[in-house]
Amino acid sequence: MKCKHAIIGAGISGLSVAANLAKLIGNGEGICVFEKNYIGSGCSTRNAGRYRVHFGAEENLKFAIESAKYLQKLKDENKFNTLLAKTGYLWLIFGEEDYKLMKKHNEIFKKYGVPLIEISPEDTYKKYPFLKERRELIASFLGPQNGSFHHDAVVYGFWKAGMKLGVKYFEYAEVTKIMVDNFEVKAIEVNHSTTVDAENVILSAGVHIKTFSDMLGLNIPIEPVRKEIMVTEPYAFAIEPFIIDTISHTYFSQTLKGEIIGSTSTGKEKRGIVELQNTIYWLVEFSKRMRAALKGSENVRIMRVWSGFYEMTPDRSHIVGKSEDWPYGIYVIGGFSGHGFMLGPFAGKLLASYIHTGKIDELIAPYSPDRFKTNKLINETFIIG
Amino acid sequence: MRCLNPGGPLSKYCENGFLPTMASMKLKRPRAPFFNEPWCPWIRVHGERIGYLYDNEYIAPKPQFSSELMTKIKHAFSKAGFYHDIYIRKPWNFLWKVIVKQSGMPPLNVNTEQRIPVTIEKIATDLLIIGNEPSAIIVANEAASRRSLSSLLIIDKKPNTSNQNTDNMAKLDSEVYVLENTNYLGRFEDGYLAVNRNKRVTYIIEAKTILFSTGTRETFPIFENNDLPGIISSDLAEELVEYGCIKGKETITLLARGGKWKRTAEKLIKINPETRIFYFGKMPKDVQIEVTNINIGSEVIAKGYPKVNNIIIADKSAKHTVPTDIVVIAMHRQPNIEPLLQHGLEPAYSESLESITVNTLPGGKTGIEGVYALGEVTGTSENDLLEEAMIASDIIINKKIPNESEKYRLEEIQKNKGLVAFKEKIIENKPPFMLTTSIKGMKFVCTCEDLTLEDIVISYERGFTTLEKIKRYSALGTGSCQGRLCQYNVAILLSYLKRVPLGSLGLIRQRPPLQPLEMKYLDQAL
């Protein structure tokens, strides 16, 4: 069997690369997506389904602004609704230090045309009456440019779009080896048995990028961190923005269906490719923090908990492209450090263009894996969770 | 969950005649509980504030449901995946606000509640037993009588017995360490979770060995307007009769088939001798009760709005139109396998139960170290229950090596379960809970998300050919019951309609908590 472009991992990044590459070429011939489990079974369908433009590092800010525009166009491009809504993000700021920092960031946001709106504590509680009043609140900052979407819908949109163009998808097909000869990718091995000839291999396997990196000595610095998340029974839609309760590292909102979705960082998260389980410890911590933040949370029933990974990099920014030290034909798209679903689709589009034309867009160039050896790091501080 | 005391919330609700407790999410259909369980979606009561029928406070339900005509119109425009249709997709940027406002869900109560004290208790035990089947009781008694290990039994309700012989055997010894009225919430990485709402205690349990014997429940039947208030499971009906919530003044119709119908019938007839019984399929011998026999392949239609007032049952030979206040379903049993699936057991199909259960080995073994499963939940025949539990408890607790005759008996008992591989099984016969001949109409498969049989078939035909994919496309199984009312039915129905193996469809991953849990039971110091 032969696949010119073998994409490893049917998560949002891999699916975006596949669909966009097929679009550029004109058809999906030679584009194959290999997924160890089922399409979207990884972190792509485990996240809270939010996107924002506001980032600390200017490269990320520029990238996210363009990425948001692309997310908004997706429903028409893929002809599959993404259920995107500009529901906003609301940062609740406590403490003078954080307040000064937020104002400093906002100056840069203003420069790029995406200013946050500062709201007084009094107005915050008036506008968002579900928030518990706390004396320590100094201000809240609303980012109306941000919003939510249905992660499953975005995943399926790319899947269907790629399928229409002839992209092939293989589920329960684990790539077990990448065969390199003469410093060039020659083939991949699937499920320890089938050999597929390939020219390009795109590593879009989320935390498992690390597995391939170790296998081939690619030095891709990804550290998985397991995060837990929960969803409640549905209520009438009231919590529109994504609330970031910075004092407790807790964040929550409502889906359009009405479930309250949220998480918190306890500092005790497990690292590495660990089993995606849940802990009572997290459940208790989360409930405590929600009681302090949301009115009426006492009788809100938690319906389901699950977990996923943040793929953290040393500078907390994504890694896209290829390295001059790697065998020819290997590309990577990953390390999104907790903002993978919102940036993955656009990063996938730019990578597809890079693969097809050989020319690297200036928006994606800074994310090269080589930046870690040249120390041109993109230090991201605006991490939620 | 003891909420059926006279004067309690559930009994008061029944006194008012099975009125709707909530409106459904998408279509705003009137809904009322089919089960008396904390995970049953319509146990939530939409009144001045959201309450639950197991709370000690009674809140008068005031759900805002739509007219029947309106629900039919909405249904026509909101089939599975409707938001991808071009006339919804194009104006989505503003249309979402309109659609979101249509939800039947109640508002979040933001009036600050008074904080009630809740305790978190930690327990360590050698053997944890979950369930109220006779098998669970037998093992618990045996463990308590031997002092070689510590054990703990968690029961949510009274033991369920259908067989005269098992009644005496299923009496709990006073020595047993038991937590009654306690709900098992699942396995976490750092312990097992359980809650007793009456006592306001949350339990975190550490156990070396766990045994599940969680029994079965009524399967949600598929027919026109099967979602109407007044249509209840045999489980709920029996509890309501036992606690005097159904007085006998109501008109009752029982749809019956299979194993447990007789017990339900006898209880209903006792309080109302006029109870009309329809038995589907070949009549069993020696039935003293008066029933109307109906052929398999019949059509059932419920009528009435906002609660059922008529049931029409038609087969090739006759059409019965029966005015009725209550419709009790005693047709098919689904094993309560959610705790077992969550623990990592694989599904299997039981030919004897005609249901999806879990894969087990003889003597309650599961293939997972330290995890056992016994009783009806695994497909064990009623006649084998006692013997299986007796032999297995000896092996599990006393580490007895079974002799040849015991080994033989366990193999026979295992054979009687009729387990076949989930991967290969194609449902050949019409599912016993499918009481219709057509796919279209208001035949609800998932009441939590207002999905009909047609929605599921549409999803499948659009390329979403596994339950996990259908879930992501249509929201199947994402409500309060987390798939209990829908997912097994969907797997069996699609296997039957599309002639595909159950294994190709799969099931939806079970995650904790195994029933929705109020945050107030968790926000304490650990």
Element layout with pairings:
The complex is a heterodimer of chains A (385) and B (526).
Chain A: E1 5-8, H1 12-25, E2 31-34, E3 50-51, H2 58-77, E4 89-94, H3 96-111, E5 117-119, H4 121-127, E6 137-143, E7 147-148, H5 151-165, E8 168-170, E9 175-181, E10 184-190, E11 194-197, E12 200-203, H6 209-216, E13 223-234, E14 242-245, E15 250-254, E16 259-264, H7 280-293, E17 301-312, E18 319-321, E19 330-334, H8 340-357, H9 371-374
Parallel strand pairs in A: 1-2, 1-12, 2-8, 4-14, 12-19
Antiparallel strand pairs in A: 3-7, 4-6, 5-6, 9-10, 10-11, 13-16, 13-17, 14-15, 15-16, 18-19
Helix pairs in contact in A: 1-5, 1-8, 2-8
Chain B: H1 9-15, E1 22-23, E2 30-31, E3 44-46, E4 50-52, H2 68-77, H3 86-89, H4 92-101, E5 119-130, H5 134-145, E6 151-154, H6 164-169, E7 178-179, E8 183-188, E9 191-196, E10 201-212, E11 216-218, E12 231-233, H7 234-242, E13 252-256, H8 261-271, E14 276-280, E15 292-294, E16 299-303, E17 310-314, E18 319-323, E19 326-330, E20 333-335, H9 338-343, E21 347-350, E22 355-358, E23 371-373, H10 385-398, H11 404-417, E24 419-421, E25 444-446, E26 451-452, H12 453-461, H13 467-474, H14 487-498, H15 502-505, E27 517-518
Parallel strand pairs in B: 5-6, 5-10, 6-7, 10-23, 12-19, 13-14, 13-19, 14-15
Antiparallel strand pairs in B: 1-2, 3-4, 8-9, 9-10, 11-20, 16-17, 17-18, 21-22, 21-24, 25-26
Helix pairs in contact in B: 5-10, 7-8
Describe what you observe in this structure.
The complex is a heterodimer of chains A (385) and B (526). Chain A has an 8-stranded mixed beta sheet, with helices on both faces. Chain A has a 6-stranded mixed beta sheet with strand order 8-2-1-12-19-18, with helices on one face. In chain A, a hairpin with a 4-residue loop joins strand 14 (242-245) and strand 15. Helix content of chain A is 30%, strand content 26%. Chain A has 9 helices and 19 strands. The mean pLDDT of chain A is 97. Chain A has 385 residues and is an alpha/beta fold. In chain B, a hairpin with a 3-residue loop joins strand 3 (44-46) and strand 4 (50-52). Chain B is globular, with a radius of gyration of 23 Å. Chain B is α/β, with parallel strands linked by helices and 526 residues long. Chain B contains 15 helices and 27 strands. At the A-B interface, helix 5, strand 13, helix 7 and strand 17 of A face helix 4, helix 13 and strand 27 of B.
